[in-house]
């Protein structure tokens, strides 16, 4: 055969091979059997590749492991696990996404290997990791070799732990995620659940009934309300899949690619309320409730506050916002709930959030208005001391700039947790309404004058005596007295507060804070 004819035949064969490969790729991208794709539509859920386009407009930049299990006798395209890299708001993000049309998104040998490789490559690249979780857990019929071995599912949890604080990890849940699949979300920095769709639990309702005899629905066991309000494992709740993608992008906008970089800055916006309104928002009566979110709105850039875990331990508000375009973490007592006292759950919530901000170089702004840590039998049994120390430890060891503001009450150890002067803040600021004391006037007067009060028989005379002593006590803890004694660095008129905090954050942007030479603390 002439040389030219032979070359032409080779080209035809090569083209045919390329066409076959492309055709096979398209077949794999269609997912599992048609009946399972139809089930997705019946459940009003998106197919995994449609879901990915909500995050990455043009789809992933590239995908790894597409041909995993492509030749299996059973229909297992990509082994039910889609992994790769996409561009989200001009940033590269590694992702893994379960394909629910393949064995209900269950995890088996090759899918596990893809998951682990993606985590490890994200770590080496120093890029965020996004998990789109829609899995029934381990593939029970095919678990030999990947459950207990060193590179099996257990490695998920090990990798999550190693990645934690090094690169951001964000999870979105679709559908009920059980057993091993449920651990990925709880290891992440932020977990997003979708209303009427998401659930996560360590065992299915059927397994719970087998083990304990308890009959419980999936929603009761691990639905959105359970984790958003009771366990605190859900940070954000989405209305639908589109909203979930929007929330994930919003979360990423506050976080750097990794712990060695600074968070992205944006153009500044005027606050949603005039800072001068803070004077009207904070009541003169130290016991009157008000919503601290109104103060936050008057302090931070407009429409920039993203509250995390809003329905869990609402006596403490945590979330990310921007001040002059710079991401900041907000930790604020909220007197609208439980008078702003610190309970075991709110201590846990604060410790987790503060640690997260510190890991990703996000400065902290504390808005203090608390009567202190809650007392009583119930909270002692719930571990107020054990869990409260985590709050104080997180505040103590945070190396980012810290600006505490006493808005009204800073009583007892509540001042410590909210970054009092002993915790080396960049400045302790007080509004004119601030009071700082070992305890509130009511408790102090009762403690000091209990016998005298009991001796006064006339009710009106007793009431007048109590009011007089409370007024005297309040004079001693007034913010001007605190300024005179250098307990606060500066008393700030409300209309000046926003600019005051901005200037101080600018000043301490390059803050250096050296921890003791040790492996790590032992508190958390």
Give the arrangement of secondary structure elements.
Blueprint: H1 3-29, H2 34-42, H3 48-55, E1 62-64, E2 81-88, E3 91-98, H4 109-125, E4 129-133, H5 154-163, E5 169-173, E6 176-178, H6 180-187, E7 190-194, E8 199-201, H7 205-212, H8 218-222, H9 224-231, E9 236-238, H10 241-254, H11 278-281, H12 292-299, E10 306-308, E11 316-323, E12 326-333, H13 344-359, E13 364-370, H14 377-381, H15 384-397, E14 402-411, H16 414-417, E15 429-430, E16 435-437, H17 441-455, H18 459-476, H19 479-484, E17 490-491, H20 494-507
Parallel strand pairs: 3-4, 4-5, 5-7, 6-8, 7-9, 12-13, 13-14, 14-15, 14-16, 15-17
Antiparallel strand pairs: 1-2, 2-3, 10-11, 11-12
Distinctive features:
alpha/beta; 2-enoyl-CoA Hydratase, Chain A, domain 1; elongated; 524 residues; 20 helices; 3 domains; eight-stranded mixed β-sheet
Strand tally is 17
The averaged pLDDT comes out at 91
Structural class: alpha/beta
- Cα radius of gyration in angstroms: 28 Å
- The geometry reads as elongated
Please give a structural write-up:
α5 (154-163) links the parallel β4 and β5. The chain has three domains: 20-254, 2-enoyl-CoA Hydratase, Chain A, domain 1 (Alpha-Beta Complex), CATH 3.90.226; 275-438 and 477-507, Alpha-Beta Complex (2-enoyl-CoA Hydratase, Chain A, domain 1); 441-476, no CATH class. It has 524 residues and is of the alpha/beta class. It contains 20 helices and 17 strands. The longest helix has 27 residues, at 3-29. The radius of gyration is 28 Å and the shape is elongated. The strands form three sheets. Strands 10, 11, 12, 13, 14, 15, 16 and 17 form an eight-stranded mixed β-sheet that branches. A seven-stranded mixed β-sheet has the order 1-2-3-4-5-7-9, sandwiched between helices. A two-stranded parallel ribbon has the order 6-8. Helix content is 42%, strand content 16%. The termini are far apart.
């Amino acid at each position: 055969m002439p040389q030219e004819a032979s070359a032409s035949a080779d080209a035809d064969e090569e083209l045919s091979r390329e066409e076959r490969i492309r055709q096979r790729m398209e077949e794999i991208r269609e997912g599992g059997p048609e009946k399972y794709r139809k089930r997705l539509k019946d459940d009003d859920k998106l197919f995994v590749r449609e879901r990915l386009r909500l995050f990455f407009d043009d789809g992933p930049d590239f995908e790894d492991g597409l041909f995993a299990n492509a030749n299996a006798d059973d229909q297992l395209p990509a082994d039910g696990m889609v992994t790769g890299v996409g561009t989200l708001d001009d940033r590269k993000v590694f992702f893994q996404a379960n394909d629910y049309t393949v064995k209900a998104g269950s995890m088996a040998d090759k899918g596990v290997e893809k998951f682990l490789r993606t985590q490890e490559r994200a770590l080496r690249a120093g890029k965020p990791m996004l998990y789109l979780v829609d899995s029934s857990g381990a593939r029970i019929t095919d678990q030999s070799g990947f459950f207990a071995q060193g590179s099996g599912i257990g490695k998920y949890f090990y990798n999550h732990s190693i990645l934690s604080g090094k690169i951001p990890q964000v999870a979105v849940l679709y559908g009920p995620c059980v057993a091993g699949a449920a651990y990925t979300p709880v290891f992440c920095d932020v977990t997003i659940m979708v209303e009427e769709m998401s659930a996560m639990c360590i065992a299915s309702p059927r397994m719970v009934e087998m083990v304990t005899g308890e009959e419980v629905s999936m929603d009761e066991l691990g639905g959105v309300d359970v984790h958003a309000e009771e366990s605190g494992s859900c940070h954000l709740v989405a209305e639908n899949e589109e909203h979930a993608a929007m929330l994930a992008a919003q979360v990423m906008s506050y976080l750097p690619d990794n712990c060695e970089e600074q968070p992205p800055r944006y153009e500044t916006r005027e606050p949603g309320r005039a800072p001068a309104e803070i004077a009207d928002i904070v009541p003169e009566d130290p016991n009157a409730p008000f919503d601290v979110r109104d103060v936050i709105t008057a302090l931070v850039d407009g429409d920039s506050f993203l509250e995390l875990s809003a329905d869990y331990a609402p006596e403490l508000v945590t979330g990310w916002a921007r001040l002059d375009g710079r991401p900041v973490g907000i930790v604020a007592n909220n007197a609208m709930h439980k008078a702003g006292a610190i309970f075991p759950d709110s201590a846990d919530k604060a410790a987790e959030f503060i640690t997260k901000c510190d890991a990703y170089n996000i400065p902290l702004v504390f808005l203090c208005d608390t009567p202190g840590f809650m007392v009583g039998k119930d909270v002692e049994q719930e571990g107020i001391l054990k869990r409260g120390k985590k709050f104080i430890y997180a505040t103590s060891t945070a190396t980012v700039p810290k600006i505490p503001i006493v808005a009204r009450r800073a009583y007892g150890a509540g001042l410590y947790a909210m970054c009092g002067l002993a915790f080396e803040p960049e400045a302790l600021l007080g509004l004119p309404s601030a009071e700082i004391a070992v305890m509130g006037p009511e408790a102090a007067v009762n403690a000091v004058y209990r016998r005298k009060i009991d001796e006064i028989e006339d009710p009106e005379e007793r009431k007048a005596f109590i009011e007089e002593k409370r007024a005297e006590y309040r004079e001693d803890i007034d913010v001007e007295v605190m300024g005179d004694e250098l307990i606060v660095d500066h008393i700030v008129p409300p209309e000046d507060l926003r600019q005051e905090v901005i200037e101080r954050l600018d000043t301490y942007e390059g803050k250096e804070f050296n921890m003791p030479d040790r492996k790590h603390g032992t508190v958390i």
